[in-house]
Protein 1
Amino acid sequence: MSSAAEMDRQVEMWWSARGEWVEAPNLRRGGESGVQCLCDPSGHIVYIKRQAGHIHRSLRHPLGRPTALREAEALLALAALRIPVPGLAYSGARKDRSGWHALLVTRALDGYLNLDAWYAAAPTAAARRNMLRELAGLLARMHRARWQHGCLYAKHIFVRKTFDPAGANVALLDLEKARRRLCASLASRRDMAQLGRHRGLMPDADWLELRELYALAPGRDH
């Protein structure tokens, strides 16, 4: 089979794949968006975000563009900055008379919990310090590159259940609203204010420590 034919087969495989809904389709941004979970041909768990008419507008795309494509670009950009994010398996969009249809397929983060579930498991003081140090570093790295997450809630921060001293223990999810800002300070100010409001079970003492570690992170302007 030629490489072009194989690529076409892969594309059609993702568009026809169906799994269990983990986020039922809901109406947002003038369209519909939902997430399904299934196993890929290799047996790995993946999440497929399916969108219809779900677009964002910008100066570059005044007529609208699928948010799934923007999220795919953000995933690749943050991964290049060594910021742990879900692996991108596929993204694509099609337009017909009914409008845009888009897919975003990401690999599951095995062995991670969202921040609230991680705190609910009563981590040790040492584990909390390690998590805060790693989170502060990746947020500083992201903001230094002028990237703003745009939806920095506790449910979008995932922490490895068992700390790995040689691995990535904190990851960011749901980059649908991520974008580059004109300056790092703007990205930083918006994200940190948002996390302060939506940090979930993170105690006040840990929030203060995170802010201190973030301010001292290499490359930050003081």
Note: The radius of gyration is 18 Å.
Protein 2
Amino acid sequence: MANQNAVTLHPYFRPHSGKFDEFLSNLSHFVKKTRTEEGCLFYGFTKSDEIIFCREGYRDAEAALAHLENVGEALGEVLKMAEFERLEIHGPANELAKMRDPLSHLPIDWFILCSDEV
């Protein structure tokens, strides 16, 4: 079975009008920075029409928080050219609990793993 402590982040971005290509060209910076993260399970971007989605998974809450610290400055830069549509964080309750306080300033939809209950 997969790592039951794994946490996935699901950020959705909508580039501003005329900024789509510029936004896309900046994504390689995130990929390069993330390659150095030991706790990253997978990382990459997908797109659907005008929405860019980052597919990312981490070993646990600590690894996810380390990632956010690692890319924080770069994220601030790309948010000058895009709207943060939404952010979902998925994982087991005990891991999500570790993230709630440090990320309390963000509008997050929290999804608690329920596979043990079904």
Note: Residues 7-112 form a domain with the Alpha-Beta Plaits fold (CATH 3.30.70.100).
Protein 3
Amino acid sequence: MTTLLYFLEMLALSVWVGGIVFLSFILAPSAFVLLPANEAGALVGLTLTRLHLAGYVATLVFLGSRVARAGVAAQSESFSRSELLLRPAMVCVLLMFLLTAISQQVVRPRMEVARAEKTANVGTLNPSPQSSAPGVPASAAFDRLHRISVKLEGGVLLLGLAAFFFTAREYSHPIR
């Protein structure tokens, strides 16, 4: 049973971290090479929203597996079951969830508004939809929000890698 629960934890992290790597290093760069900027942005935005949903599910799977593992762990004088819920991997996953929720619930909606304003201004102020209109507030807002979004996803990626490490370390040094 414990091996299955470890597997589910690692699977949840794999899907989440793998999705971020795919989006950041494969899909987004390719989309901006092959598609006009507005279409590429829409594709990346939709994919990011779905990745965030996958992150929510991965959090539930990881937490559920962790709680189940705490339930089947043997209680001893040197280990309490609740200790398993406060391990570094668990903290990393909770922080990943928090950053993902901020990205999806706060940053993404603001980016969509700024993108719509930027697109509306492109035709009148900037003839090329491939570039930002310097000095246009919507463009500056979008660029600032995009940088925040990238930093949030980068944070989730780094925390995910740390969670992988801590989970693997727990498996190689199980609590007895």
Note: The chain has one domain: 2-172.
Protein 4
Amino acid sequence: MPFARISLLKGKPKEYLQALSDKLHQALVETFEVPPDDRFQAIHQHEPEELIFDRHYQGGPRSDDFVLICITAGRLRATPAKQAFYRRLVELLADAPGIRPEDVMVIINTTAPDEWSFAAGQSLVNESAR
């Protein structure tokens, strides 16, 4: 049940954004134990002065095609699963929409099940169990 926030600079066509969304989801399904119908993403496009990033810190060089993907996951994954996800993601994004691996940054945060409510004001944990 991950939620992904995708940040990039403004100006990409909708086909680019769709490919970015699709390939991210494909990588999550293939390597991160995410069901195919579990897809929640928000794409944020920013003006250049609104997305600040170091072009060389821990990698790079980064270009104006830089994309920051923040994933909030509902449970922990083992380090090998995360590493497989990172590798598969940059492989897929290089294929389409054509993002260089140096331009992809990923942050994964994990939350507890009771920190999610998908609908009707109910959490994933039974209220009486707390």
Note: The chain has a mean pLDDT of 93.
